[in-house]
Amino acid sequence: MRSWLVLTIGQLARFVGVSIKTIRVYHDKGLLPEPERDASGYRRYRAAHAIDLIKTRTLAEAGVPLARIRDLRSATDDDFRQAVHRIDTDLSARIRELRATQRRLRRLADGRLPAIPAEVGSHLEHLPRLGFSRRWVALQKDLWLLVFATHPDAAVRVFRETVQIMSDPALRRLHLDYDHAHDLDPHDPRVDDLARRIVDATREQYGSGDLPGYGADSPIPGLVQGAVNAASPAWRRLDTLIREQLSA
């Protein structure tokens, strides 16, 4: 049945809430079919064009690249639904990230700069009594400040799992030996022995899964290890040996 609703490009733009320039870009990119023109050569849009334009605008606002939107125009209904579901999932993740950013922004606006929680402070105060050096404690403080400032949503979980690890005497011994290896020559046999023991303990506790508190795409391990490696040539070689052996 023929539609009797006829719109000019300006009316269509106002109706959908986009600019005339945007409609012309969508025409040029093949995202919106060109309508028929009247005797005067003006484009005349109908309801179907408005619906196509709303779909295109919605996908574009969700961050879908224009080339992908063009591909979706020829997708089957089932493929289109699946694609929209994936876009929705990605958008939800972006919203969570934006909300986390908003919370950090509001803390900054209120003058509440990132600080180490009390439980972290208590943990750091206890480390010297366990035999850790002042250098190690200072480094740990800086690292936890960095993690809590950059990844506050994951930091508490990672910290508590770290404390649980430290409650195991054998694992705590490895951390102590790591601390005391700071001043060793990078090629000292004790560095190689410590790397082997750390690899054995890691495989025994975690197998091939993710380390505690970290997902496969978490930036925290690299962030922490990069800071540790910069503090000592021996620690840097330890990290290299551990990575090589774990990937072997």
Describe the structure.
The structure is a single chain. The protein has 248 residues and is an all-alpha fold. The chain has three domains: 1-74, Multidrug-efflux Transporter Regulator, Chain: A, Domain 2 (Orthogonal Bundle); 77-113; 118-247, no CATH class. The chain has helices at 9-16, 20-28, 47-61, 66-72, 77-109, 118-126, 134-150, 152-166, 169-180, 189-206, 220-229, 233-247. The chain is elongated, with a radius of gyration of 29 Å. InterPro entries: DNA-bd_dom_put_sf (IPR009061), MerR-type_HTH_dom (IPR000551), MerR_fam (IPR047057). GO terms for molecular function: DNA binding; DNA-binding transcription factor activity.
What's the count of strands?
Answer: 0
Q: State the domain count.
A: 3
SSE order in H/E notation?
A: HHHHHHHHHHHH
Largest sheet: none
Instruction: Give the end-to-end Cα distance, rounded to a whole number of Å.
Output: 68 Å
Q: Tell me the radius of gyration.
A: 29 Å
Q: What would the average pLDDT be, to the nearest integer?
A: 85
Overall spatial form: elongated
Q: Total helix count? A: 12
GO molecular function, one term: DNA-binding transcription factor activity
InterPro entries: DNA-bd_dom_put_sf, MerR-type_HTH_dom, MerR_fam
Domain HTH merR-type: 6-75
Keywords: DNA-binding
Q: Main attributes?
A:
single chain, 248 residues, mainly alpha, Multidrug-efflux Transporter Regulator, Chain: A, Domain 2, 3 domains, 12 helices, 68% helix, DNA-binding transcriptional MerR regulator, DNA-binding
Short description:
This is DNA-binding transcriptional MerR regulator. With 248 residues, the protein is mostly helical.
